């Protein structure tokens, strides 16, 4: 049986990001089986945390499905959000006019 920290969700072993089930502070150490992941930034409830280091263009799997692709390299433990992830299906909108994120 795989040990999963109760603060995050991992729906499928193939998922390369974790879903925060609570707000997780920067510096928190998450145990996922034999791996320990240090959270690099505060991550809000429902947001994603990189389970592994990801190179630009990597398909991001969460909730057991592809949720988008990285737009730049992402470190293990980093918050995965619109500044480093784009939807492969829908445009990503930001509050910054003229942003191409």
Strand proportion, as a percent range, falls in: 25-35%
Supply Rg.
Answer: 13 Å
CA-based shape: globular
Biggest sheet strand order reads 1-2-5-8
| Number of H- or I-type helical stretches | 0
Q: How many strands, which pairing sense, and closed or not: the largest β-sheet? A: 4 strands, antiparallel
Whole-number tally of structural domains: 1
SS elements, strand count: 9
* Architecture (CATH level 2) name: Roll
Low-confidence stretches: none
**Helix and strand element order:** EEEEEEEEE
CATH topology: Archaeosine Trna-guanine Transglycosylase, Chain: A, domain 4
Key phrases:
101 residues; mainly beta; Archaeosine Trna-guanine Transglycosylase, Chain: A, domain 4; four-stranded antiparallel β-sheet; three-stranded antiparallel β-sheet; 9 strands; globular
């Amino acid at each position: 049986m795989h040990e999963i920290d109760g603060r995050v969700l991992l729906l499928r072993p193939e998922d390369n990001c974790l879903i925060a089930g609570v707000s997780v502070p920067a510096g928190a150490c998450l145990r996922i089986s034999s791996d320990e992941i240090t959270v690099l930034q505060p991550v809000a409830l429902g947001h994603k945390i990189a389970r592994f280091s990801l190179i630009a263009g990597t398909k991001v799997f969460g909730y057991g499905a592809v949720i988008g692709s990285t737009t730049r390299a992402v470190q293990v433990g980093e918050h995965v959000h619109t500044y480093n992830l784009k939807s492969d299906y829908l445009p990503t909108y930001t509050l910054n006019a003229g942003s191409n994120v």
